[in-house]
Write a structure and sequence with these properties.
The strands form six sheets. A four-stranded mixed β-sheet has the order 10-11-15-14. The longest helix has 17 residues, at 40-56. It has helices spanning 5-9, 17-31, 40-56, 59-68, 90-93, 125-130, 271-276, 338-350, 364-372, and strands spanning 117-123, 132-143, 159-160, 169-174, 177-182, 191-192, 205-216, 225-228, 244-250, 257-259, 262-270, 278-282, 292-296, 305-308, 324-331. It is elongated. Helices cover 23% and strands 25% of the residues. A hairpin with a 2-residue loop joins strand 10 (257-259) and strand 11 (262-270). It is α+β, with helices and mostly antiparallel strands and 373 residues long. The chain has four domains: 5-104, Helix Hairpins (Orthogonal Bundle); 106-157 and 198-251, Sandwich (HSP40/DNAj peptide-binding domain), CATH 2.60.260; 159-192, no CATH class; 257-372, Sandwich (HSP40/DNAj peptide-binding domain), CATH 2.60.260. The chain contains nine helices and 15 strands.
Amino acid sequence: MPADYYEILGVERTATDQEIKSAYRRLALKFHPDRNPGNKEAEEKFKEAAEAYGILADSDKRQRYDAYGHAGVSGAGGAGFDPTIFADFGDILGDFFGFGDLFGRRARGGPRRGSDLRYNLELTFEEAAFGTETQIQIPRTQSCGSCKGSGSSPGTQPSTCPNCRGAGQVTYQQGFFSVARTCGRCRGAGKIVTSPCPTCEGQGVVPIERKLKVPIPPGVDTGSQLRITGEGEPGAAGGPPGDLYVVIGVQDHEFFHREGSDLHCEMPISFAQASLGGSVEVPTPGPEDEPAKLSIPEGTQTGTSFKLKNKGVPHLGHKGRGDLHVTVRVVVPTRLSSEQKRLIEQLAKTLPEDPAAQDKGRSVKSRLKDLLG
């Protein structure tokens, strides 16, 4: 009687697709012929695992198998080891054993997309918060104009690769099936350059410095990425170019501290302002913003925080702005005149010696409110 597919993979019948995939990958790597040359038992286990995965990874086949067992998946398109199953396993085994090239999954000498590029751009606080336009210079390559990207001298053509005979791949026997891998001599192109272009030295591309204007939207922050389509490396054999990713870094500000779209700052106030109340002007970050007036109630303590709505950084990709949180710090004078000392001494005689005594007349609820902010 054939072995149970769930038992072969070592999973429960309620296993998720991801659990089935992980179990198969573990067994495939363990029993792969490359790791067990000449081991027939390992080869059989490898086949069993592939067969089990081929059924359980397919929702329709799995449903029939759960209902009718092996009888439900026997016959055409049912159970039995099929080497072509590996054409769908690129995300499981990757290129670990060359499966990326198996059954021609990679185009042989055909157009290939160019590589993406990354550029680290440092902005000032204001540029990141309120947007700007900047110019950057990107070192990259472009298709050689002399040979039009072929790599061969004008008037000549690349010759067929003698190693793969133009196929771009070489095939060899691996265990019980054939594996095709990219030709190491022509790197999959199927052709080699025998008369290199003197301009690009046979590379097909030449280095350049490209200048780009990059619009910076308001609200970007450190780690934000801007994608500029088509500004990466050129593609091979007529393939499309890659993209350019501009990664943002933002300088610190001497007064404001940013948290998302909200800003925080510390504002010094005098002992008199804290005691008697008043108003102070708070700088605001926007280039067109006027300083904001902040009302200080009498008896304000150091560490008290006030919120100025819509005075923060614009929301990235959305309307509106964050808030500005202002924390006040009472500045105690360090140098006093004789008259100032005399007046403070007179004031001190009218105040409790223990500052905590000022809270005695307040309710517990009121004190907790101050404590918890």
